Amino acid sequence: MGKIMTEKTKVESVLHILRKQSPLSLKQEKFCNTACVERFLKVKGENVKKAAKLLRACLTWRDTIGTVDEFSGELAEGIAYVAGHDEEARPVMVFRIKQDYQKFHSQKLFTRLMVFTLEAAVQTMQRNTEQFVILFDASFFRSASAFMNIVLPTLKIVAEYYPARLHKAFVIDPPPLFQYLWKGVRPFVELSNLTTIVSSTDFEDSITLDYNDFSMYPRAASLRFDSSSIPVHSSAAKIGACASSRFSFTVSHSFDSLKP
């Protein structure tokens, strides 16, 4: 009995290892709350040393990312934003990036945009909510490989630095060859079991579905962004309602800015 570590003891052990390696800053101490450490333990099979190693890597990464920029332009265009919340109060993020985005923006800037959106989603979570949903809308892409370069880095960052946060991810209307590429890389993608490819071609426009319907149908409806849903202000972008002719989400107005 004495050798069995309780959840509280495991959390304290992880924090002890981190503090022994190097003192935690006030910002890091705040980040490493009990719920956070428990998520890292969960993805590492309750192994204290492995959880501490992953959490240390996450803290280092967050320090490297630094202060995240505001992306009011991207929000106005509907490139990446928090659309609202599902019936379980999980924030729903939409990545609707154009194919030429990475031609004119560096990978680092794309990563910062991604982190900005992820952090915004986390900030909108209610007290008992720990997971989010991601929708990858591929309607602007013709190249399967180019779109893969959007999906894979996002899933990798979520797996490594937001462990146990992803409820489900949906790839909507990808280019025809995407499914073949995905079949090849899927065994090597940690969150592949939570990622589903869906298409709108088998449904009529009049059909309305929410994302839970995706588990019941092999193909599902695609998202259409309404630019009027996100009014942009000079200093920060605020979230409004997200309208779609095919599905919609309940949007929370309990927060003022996407800036974490």
UniProtKB/TrEMBL annotation:
Residue span, CRAL-TRIO domain: 82-218
SMART domains named in the record: SEC14 (SM00516)
Originating species: Chenopodium quinoa (Quinoa)
CDD domains: SEC14 (cd00170)
Name this polypeptide is given: CRAL-TRIO domain-containing protein
InterPro entries listed in its UniProt record: CRAL-TRIO_dom, CRAL-TRIO_dom_sf, CRAL/TRIO_N_dom_sf
